[in-house]
Q: What sequence folds into this?
């Protein structure tokens, strides 16, 4: 039932995105000073902001921006995580030791604080760069999981290889690793996407994220704060969109209670920001 | 008197003229300077509309965004630093309003000497530092010497001063590099600091000085408590100046992380004073009975800089066409609440040499098409302009990140330009990168800038080739001739004519498109009185604030 | 036992140091850009003045030298001078604000446990029904939302609209003397309430889930059957032994949630104007005060690693099965 709630939330966001070109076909940058801070109406289903820009169009633009950031981040963190995980699992005790220490050290630190530090030195030129940076901070858990998979597989592979002499360990490893790793990446993708979107919007809210004109949810919430008394729809629309996306993705990734138990015994909780 | 012109530092000429101008301003200064002490003393209550006498006691709460870092001007970074310094330290004189007269503070009188490059100040006697030592001319001399050192953040404003000498225990003389009608403003800029405590400190140790957190001042208040990131508490001094004491017992500076939480506190009654209130909020607050909104127009303005060295913005017809496509009246209305805030040129309306004939282009978007086709452009199928080579015309407007007003202005300007068919985009970046790209590398199409109110009118510096503030990289031969002539002119009336012609030429060339003048918006609780004496720099007259007995 | 604790402590400190050094290297890789911001803020123009500034901040030295110099500063206790708080050492600034972050994180942790316990208890009682699923979903939703959203959703109705809680800050009119310790304490708690609730809400889901699973397991164990047979009341069984046994691993889970909690505290401090270490870090980053950022990183890292160590030790202390090993 939890999962159905999750899908429902996501469906709401998708509906919003689909409807926007029909009911609010405005340029998100389109200024209209004469119609600033207007309540939601037929012409503007989610109202307008301080410069008369349509809120629904801006929220939709923020959605696309978030999707881009999320996809890039997932790609980067998956690539790096899988790479490091394989290296650690298959590279021998020394390499494994060194990489594991690195992963432990990085995981011990609050990820958001790490992100803030990096934001101090990197110029965010585009949403893709934001995605890359967040992705570069998010590969650690994937690496750990992949490493475990590789190690388990190695055990079995050697046993098999010992029995069926002649088959090369590395190729067997690769053949069996593929489906396991991809399944791992896909299963955790939704949760990771959610945490990336949350991290990016928090950065934007603190004024440290993307410094461009294109609206992101975090910026919309930040900018709308000054009108919270008179025009709450500006902030609340973005809060709703962000909330539905994050909550939807998390709930949809929920496993059945039985699965929970199995997983809890294996790995620590994923729910850190 | 107001912000008079600044003569460009070209050649050795201009003395005769300068002397004439200065003689005029000196006469005015003397009229304001000596003896006109009423504004600085115990304050008549008539100015604030009620004829009540100021009551003693009470605490005023001022809201600031960002914590003051230091009380020293030489290390100061933001206006918050100067707010704090205004309470604890004094200046030689202060201004009663943006273009108003100078009111004596530490200096009780002053004279400009006939050579036009020197001002002599006579200091008030009996002013004591918090540790009981008397304030003397050597403190002023020491402060000025330190302010002119290259590491000091205000050294740029003090550039015109050549040297300062203490000619007596309470006599100071300022020597300027060239005749300058802004001399008085330059001299009194900044607070005076104690030589006996800071004189022996090496400039390199400046960073670690305890004085930053525990100042010893000569002002009406002293710092009693500093809770980091929370508040600073200042209490009234009884012994600072002879026969004078602030009405209030205490001023508390409450620190907030952002404007929104400060505004919440203001509306909830937790603050008496807040600066730089955003316009929409100010409009909403104005209808409340317990708050007064003071909007003080300043000489600062917002403008678009065009890169005249980059095609197609290098063509004057293009710049004029684009300028005519921007609805500046609507911008003034939106950001300043009134069309009269429209800025039409580099010379403010209350300037003695302001040209009443408008030199700036008016809003005519319909004519843009004709203007642009006349330079060889044409409109493509999807309504976008193509230049002579048939490439789509793209414009990127750079603006400072983090400043909502400038960002929003840029968004509106870009939208105006998109409506006439240009591909206009806004790119935000942090101030340092912005300045580097515009001023050092010249790598930009257009940028949105804001000029501070304290910046003087300086045609040569802003539009002359080689000028320090010539962001547009303008180099027009006609204008150069005019600016040269102006610099050498000795006759007042001829200088004025040349100046006006030069200003008109600037208007024709449109290197900058002037948008609107900015006002300082201050929100004050009704219970806090006595602010009218020195708007908008109200912190400077904190000794005149008072709160009625029943509201304390 | 003592040697075990010491070894853990050493590991915690070394891990924290590792992070801090990594962050230091990252920050100083772009120190010219930081210098530009510092110069811009101070109004310093021109190559000469900029060079003077560079020297006074020690940024003209090679990075390894800067690092060893910083390590020396840390060992001496001051952690260097803060560039954005002239006149104060980094340690001074950090320790001025540390208690507030500790208060916030501590109460956030407490609320996390309380809320987790509450939701887990509801789950246990209403196992399998829609109420259980709803409780679970709400917990996950609160966790999934960004902390600043939770903060705004709490702030607006309860503080701005209803006025039940203060709008910001740590206390009312602290500059006015008077008011006993009790009033100050109550006032402080009043101000702490919303930020702490925000933190707790954003992080209790993991606790709830873990507790619920383990609790269920415990309730199914053989000793429970025996206890029931002996006539022990249901309430005592649920809230007594089985909870205590289930709580052991909770400590580890809490230790693991510390990075998230501290990261969340940084955000919550911005929303509620709570002047703790998070505020210091954000301001220091804006001002490019590299010394202060480095010190804040170290302190935050220590908070997390030492906190994790404490929770692991608590786990060992609480769970007799672990101790027996």
A:
């Amino acid at each position: 039932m939890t999962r159905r709630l999750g899908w429902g939330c996501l469906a709401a966001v998708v509906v919003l995105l689909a409807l926007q070109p029909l009911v609010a076909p405005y340029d998100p940058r389109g200024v209209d000073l004469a119609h600033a801070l207007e309540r939601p109406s037929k012409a503007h289903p989610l109202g307008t902001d301080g410069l008369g820009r349509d809120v629904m169009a801006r929220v939709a633009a923020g959605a696309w921006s978030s999707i881009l950031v999320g996809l890039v981040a997932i790609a980067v963190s998956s690539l790096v995580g899988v790479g490091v995980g394989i290296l650690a699992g298959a590279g021998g005790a020394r390499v494994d030791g060194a990489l594991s220490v690195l992963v432990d050290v990085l995981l011990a630190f609050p990820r958001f604080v790490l992100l803030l530090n990096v934001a101090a030195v990197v110029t965010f030129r585009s949403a893709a760069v934001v995605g890359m940076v967040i992705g570069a901070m998010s590969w650690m858990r994937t690496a750990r999981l992949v490493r475990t998979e590789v190690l388990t597989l190695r055990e079995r592979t050697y046993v098999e290889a010992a029995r069926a002499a002649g088959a090369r360990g590395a190729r067997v490893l690769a053949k069996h690793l593929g489906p396991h790793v991809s399944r791992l990446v896909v299963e955790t993708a939704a949760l990771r996407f959610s945490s990336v979107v949350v991290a990016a919007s928090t950065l934007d809210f603190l004024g440290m994220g993307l410094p461009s004109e294109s609206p992101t949810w975090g910026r919309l919430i930040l900018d709308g704060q000054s009108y919270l008394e008179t025009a709450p729809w500006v902030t609340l629309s973005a809060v709703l969109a962000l909330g539905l996306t994050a909550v939807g993705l998390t709930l949809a990734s929920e496993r059945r209670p039985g699965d929970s138990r199995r997983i809890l015994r294996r790995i620590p909780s994923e729910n850190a920001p | 008197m107001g912000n008079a012109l600044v003569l460009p530092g070209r050649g050795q000429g201009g003395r005769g003229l300068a002397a004439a101008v200065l003689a005029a301003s000196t006469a005015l200064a003397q009229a304001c300077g000596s003896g006109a002490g009423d504004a600085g003393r115990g304050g008549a209550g008539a100015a604030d509309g009620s004829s009540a006498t100021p009551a003693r006691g009470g605490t005023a709460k001022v809201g600031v965004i960002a914590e003051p870092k230091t009380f020293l001007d030489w290390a100061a970074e933001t206006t918050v630093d100067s707010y704090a310094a205004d309470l604890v330290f004094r200046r030689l004189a202060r201004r009663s309003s943006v273009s108003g007269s100078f009111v004596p503070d530490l200096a009780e009188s002053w004279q400009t000497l006939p050579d036009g490059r020197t001002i002599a100040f006579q200091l008030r006697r009996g002013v004591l530092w918090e540790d009981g030592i008397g304030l003397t001319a050597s403190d002023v001399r020491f402060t000025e010497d330190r302010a002119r050192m290259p590491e000091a953040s205000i050294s740029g404003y003090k550039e015109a001063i050549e040297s300062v000498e203490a000619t007596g225990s309470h006599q100071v003389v300022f020597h300027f590099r060239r005749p300058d009608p802004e001399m008085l403003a330059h001299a009194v800029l900044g607070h005076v600091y104690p030589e006996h405590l800071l004189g022996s400190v090496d400039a390199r140790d400046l960073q670690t000085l305890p004085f930053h957190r525990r100042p010893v001042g000569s002002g009406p208040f002293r710092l009693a408590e500093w809770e980091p990131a929370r508040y600073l508490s200042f209490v009234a001094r009884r012994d600072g100046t002879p026969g004078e004491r602030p009405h209030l017992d205490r001023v508390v500076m409450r620190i907030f992380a952002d404007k929104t939480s400060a505004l919440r506190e203001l509306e909830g009654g937790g603050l008496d004073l807040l600066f730089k209130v955003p316009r929409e909020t100010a409009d909403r607050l104005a209808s409340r009975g317990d708050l007064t909104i003071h909007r003080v127009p300043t000489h600062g303005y917002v403008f678009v800089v065009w890169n005249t060295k980059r095609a197609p913005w290098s063509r004057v017809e293009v710049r004029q066409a684009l300028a005519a496509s921007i609805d500046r009246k609507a911008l003034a209305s939106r950001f300043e609440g009134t069309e009269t805030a429209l800025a039409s040129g580099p010379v403010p309306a209350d300037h003695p040499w302001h040209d009443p004939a408008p030199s700036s282009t008016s809003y005519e978007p319909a004519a843009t098409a004709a203007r642009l086709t006349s330079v060889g452009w044409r409109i493509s199928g999807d309504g976008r302009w193509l230049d002579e080579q048939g490439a789509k015309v793209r414009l990127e407007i750079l603006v400072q990140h983090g400043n909502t007003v400038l960002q929003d202005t840029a968004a509106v300007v870009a939208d105006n330009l998109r409506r006439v068919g240009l591909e206009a985009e806004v790119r935000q970046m942090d101030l340092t990168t912005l300045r580097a790209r515009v001023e050092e590398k010249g790598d930009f199409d257009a940028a949105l800038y804001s000029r501070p109110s304290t910046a003087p009118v300086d045609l040569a510096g802003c539009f002359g080739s080689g000028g320090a503030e010539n962001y547009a990289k303008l180099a027009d031969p006609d204008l150069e001739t005019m600016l040269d002539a102006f610099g050498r002119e000795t006759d007042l009336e001829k200088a004025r004519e040349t100046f006006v012609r030069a200003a008109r030429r600037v208007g024709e060339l449109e290197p900058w498109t002037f948008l609107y003048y900015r006002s300082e918006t201050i929100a004050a609780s009704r219970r806090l009185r006595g602010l009218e004496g020195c708007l908008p720099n109200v912190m400077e007259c904190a000794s005149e604030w008072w709160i009625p007995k029943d509201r304390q | 036992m003592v040697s075990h604790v010491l070894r853990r402590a050493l590991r915690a400190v070394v891990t924290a140091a590792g992070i801090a050094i990594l962050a230091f290297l990252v920050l100083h890789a772009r120190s010219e850009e930081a210098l530009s911001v510092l110069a811009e803020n101070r109004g310093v123009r021109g190559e000469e003045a900029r060079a003077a500034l560079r020297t006074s901040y020690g940024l003209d030295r090679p990075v390894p030298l800067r690092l060893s110099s910083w390590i020396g500063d840390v060992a001496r206790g001051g952690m260097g001078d803060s560039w954005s708080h002239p006149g104060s050492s980094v340690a001074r600034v950090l320790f001025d604000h540390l208690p507030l972050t500790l208060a916030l994180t501590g109460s956030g942790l407490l609320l996390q446990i309380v809320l987790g316990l509450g939701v887990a208890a509801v789950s246990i009682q209403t196992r399998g029904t829609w109420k259980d699923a709803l409780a679970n979903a709400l917990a996950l939703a609160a966790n999934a939302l960004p902390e600043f959203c939770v903060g705004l959703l709490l702030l607006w109705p309860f503080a701005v609209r209803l006025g039940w809680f203060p709008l910001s800050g740590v206390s009312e009119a602290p500059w006015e003397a008077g008011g006993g310790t009790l009033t100050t304490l109550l006032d402080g708690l009043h101000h702490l309430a919303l930020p702490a609730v925000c933190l707790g809400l954003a992080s209790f889901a993991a606790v709830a889930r873990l507790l619920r699973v383990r609790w269920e397991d415990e309730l199914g164990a053989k000793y429970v059957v025996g206890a029931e047979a002996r006539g022990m009341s249901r309430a005592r069984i649920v809230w007594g032994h089985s909870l205590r046994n289930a709580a052991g691993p909770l400590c580890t889970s809490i230790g693991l949630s510390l990075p998230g909690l501290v990261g969340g505290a940084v955000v919550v401090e911005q929303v509620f104007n709570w002047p703790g270490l998070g505020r210091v870090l954000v301001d220091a980053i804006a001002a490019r005060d590299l010394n202060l950022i480095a010190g804040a990183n170290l302190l935050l890292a220590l908070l997390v690693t030492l906190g994790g160590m404490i929770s692991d030790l608590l786990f060992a202390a609480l769970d007799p099965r672990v101790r027996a090993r």
Summary: Chain C touches chain A through 59 residues (CB under 8 Å). Chain C has 14 helices and no strands.
